[in-house]
Specification:
Layout: E1 2-6, H1 7-18, E2 32-38, E3 41-47, E4 51-58, E5 60-63, E6 65-70, H2 71-79, E7 85-91, E8 94-99, E9 102-107, E10 124-129, H3 130-140, E11 156-161, E12 164-170, E13 174-181, E14 188-192, H4 194-201, E15 210-215, E16 219-223, E17 227-232, E18 251-256, H5 257-267, E19 277-282, E20 286-293, E21 296-303, E22 305-306, E23 311-316, H6 317-325, E24 331-336, E25 343-346, E26 353-359
Helix pairs in contact: 1-2, 3-4, 5-6
């Protein structure tokens, strides 16, 4: 294998593919990136056995072939080079990377030792607007559970029925829900690993048009112009999120988002390092944000409008801050019922979409 390519072209694809590499693995070959040179293009591939990614770039192919190289070392080497043309060549059991001022050699592993990239067996497919998909993932993925023992909640639940797309993530303490109106398609429910969707949105932007999406009973694939991402679906069933969304939250608090974020950030400095408890004393025209621990105490008042009598609610400041960072409007609304029931947090969105968050309060004795 021997090809020539501009550094900028190779680096763009290499950074995308390397994002799939596992942080820890007992299989050395999974830390490698597969390189295949054929005709006028080079395909870079990586997998962690749950998610696989292929991305193709144009290059000057001198000799066709394939090999695998240590992924992160390859990326670091290319990234630190100055703008130049790079030559990649297999010599015996090594891959040589050359440019006009130097040569680097990396031990290679033959391609036949690399896991086979899975293929989709089903024919279920549809197209989806890139802008809506990107926003849905950005606004929900942070809420997915990161606890190893909660497999069902570790994914992003994607549910389409008729012309309504619903994307939901939750860790049992907070929930993120994004709905948008799209072209009518066959209904489905999928539980998708967040890593696959985050990788996808790192590649697309709002200028992309529809994305071709295909899936079967165990996998989902995203097909772009020169990149394919295939992920194993999470087998565990996502819980019925509709059952946890309260219907009777009539008490409404409306506050300036930035003012609340700044006050919360300062007061949380004095909150407990485990519970992150911050108390909201809500009155008709203002909110007292307060906490007191052995570290000291913090107190701020912010403006707000509340359509009921005074109420006190305790929140985890870290969870609330995560939600507020994902709200785009200047103001945010809290819909609540009591200090012990879930609070709905929402704001204005476009006509064809809805964004809502659910946050469980901290109940103290």
């Amino acid at each position: 294998m021997y090809f020539k390519v501009k550094k900028s072209v190779l680096l763009e694809k290499l950074q995308l593919v390397a994002s799939i590499l596992p942080q820890r693995t007992t299989l050395i070959v999974l830390g490698n990136i597969k390189i295949q040179a054929a005709k006028k293009s080079v395909t870079l591939s990586a997998t962690d056995l749950d998610i696989s990614l292929d991305s193709t770039l144009t290059a000057d192919i001198v000799e066709e072939g394939s090999i695998t190289v240590p992924g992160r070392r390859f990326l670091e080497t290319v990234r630190d080079l100055p703008p130049c043309e790079i030559e990649i060549k297999v010599v015996n059991d090594f891959v040589e990377l050359r440019y006009n001022k130097g040569t680097y050699k990396m031990p290679a592993i033959p391609i036949d030792e690399y896991p086979e990239i899975p293929k989709l067996s089903g024919k279920k497919h549809f197209s989806f607007p890139a802008a809506f998909l990107r926003k849905a993932v950005l606004k929900t993925s942070f809420a997915a559970s990161k606890e190893p023992g909660r497999r069902a909640l570790s994914g992003i639940h994607w549910h389409i029925v008729d012309n309504e797309s619903n994307m939901i993530a939750t860790d049992g303490r907070k929930l993120a829900y994004y709905r948008c109106t799209v072209k009518k398609t066959e209904p489905f429910k999928l539980n998708i690993p967040p890593k696959a969707l985050r990788t996808l949105i790192g590649y697309i932007d709002d200028d992309n048009e529809d994305i071709d999406i295909r899936f079967d009973d165990t996998k989902i694939g995203f097909y772009l112009k020169d990149t394919t991402i295939i992920a194993r679906l999470i087998e565990e069933v996502f819980p019925d999120y509709k059952q946890v969304i309260p219907k009777g939250n009539k008490k409404t608090l409306k506050v300036p988002r930035e003012e609340l974020m700044n006050a919360l950030k300062r007061v949380a400095i004095y909150a407990d390092s485990i519970s992150h408890l911050v108390r909201f004393d809500i009155e008709p025209e203002r909110v007292r944000v307060y906490t007191e621990t052995e570290l000291g105490s913090g107190e701020e008042y912010i403006t707000g409008t509340f359509n009921d009598k005074s109420i006190t609610v305790n929140f985890n400041a870290s969870y609330l801050a995560e939600i507020l960072r994902n709200v785009d409007d200047d103001s945010v609304e809290f819909l609540m019922s009591s200090p012990k029931t879930a609070v709905i947090i929402t704001h204005k969105t476009g006509e064809k979409e809805e964004l809502m968050y659910l946050l469980m309060p901290i109940i103290t004795s």
